């Protein structure tokens, strides 16, 4: 069966080079070979996250670390900033972990604003905060720098940041931002297969975790740190992912970080222009559009055009491309096009040509 190329916002298309690295023969995860592999990629991971802290590899999807962050860092109460399906879910997960949690809910399509976070934190009730940098369900990027600036005012609050669909595609300077946890899954902007998450923690986060008794084992941040100091993971990692990550880091640094960031910005602008050309408006509030995916308004908000999304998807799929038909409560009322990973102007132009043709048949 012919492969349908993924332009959904995760998992995204994985290159042949990455797949080849992913399927290399196994090595023992306590042997020198694995330690050398992890040690070799550690400086690149630190450079990518702009940090001196160690970067950990978790064999789980992103949710493992998202739940782990709650279990490791919340004692008093967590403020879950909510602006879409993933950030809304984090509030639910906090409660499922038995933690006191409060929602800071904004309308889908809007970003989280620092002033709103500030007002909540000023109550003094919270010792942790979750925020999603790039809310993949709505295509909204929240102003992380402004939100992170609040850390200076509230040093006791742990700032937990999900960069699942933005890490590696746009600059996020972990140390300079002063945040406490930064995490991502591998199947989004990294364009690796799903099944592994990457994250890093501040010294303060590790100190907080060490005081918490019921933080569990599999996602114990203190275990990750102890093991990473020996270039190992707490339990058996997905070794294929580590090889794939090594190969991807090679690609990332061959391109150059600034070039990579600019490429994502450019491709997202191209998709926005494609949408405008066909009379669509965008779902995100203006000025907060994601650089890794475009969430097109298809009747979820007033203005712009609306088409039969399943029909559009089918026409595009018949030509070998998969686009997303909207997530959660805005399914069908939006559709999403990803430019994450290895996409170029040429590959995006091929997709727009197919989309143009589909639009002419709708
Ligand atoms: C995909 C995604 C998640 C969840 O990732 P899983 O890999 O399914 O655990 C969380 N947050 C954001 C922003 C995402 O895009």
What does this 3D model show about the protein?
There is one protein chain. The protein has 2 domains: 111 residues, Aspartate Aminotransferase, domain 1, CATH 3.90.1150.10; 238 residues, Type I PLP-dependent aspartate aminotransferase-like (Major domain) (Aspartate Aminotransferase, domain 2). It is globular. The mean pLDDT is 98. Helix 1 runs antiparallel to helix 10 and helix 2 packs across helix 10. It has 362 residues and is an alpha/beta fold. The protein has a 7-stranded mixed β-sheet, sandwiched between helices. It has a 3-stranded antiparallel β-sheet with strand order 11-12-14, with helices on one face. The protein has a two-stranded parallel sheet with strand order 1-13. The site of pyridoxal-5'-phosphate (PLP) has 13 residues, from helix 3.
How is the secondary structure organized here?
Blueprint: E1 5-6, H1 16-22, H2 32-49, E2 55-58, H3 62-73, E3 78-82, H4 85-96, E4 101-105, H5 114-121, E5 128-132, E6 134-135, E7 140-141, H6 144-148, E8 158-162, H7 174-177, E9 181-185, E10 197-201, H8 203-210, H9 221-228, H10 239-255, H11 257-277, E11 281-282, E12 293-297, H12 309-318, E13 321-322, E14 334-338, H13 345-360
Parallel strand pairs: 1-13, 3-4, 3-5, 5-8, 8-9
Antiparallel strand pairs: 2-10, 6-7, 9-10, 11-12, 12-14
Bound molecules: pyridoxal-5'-phosphate.
Residues 10, 61-63, 86, 132, 134, 136, 162, 164-165, 185, 188 line the site of pyridoxal-5'-phosphate.
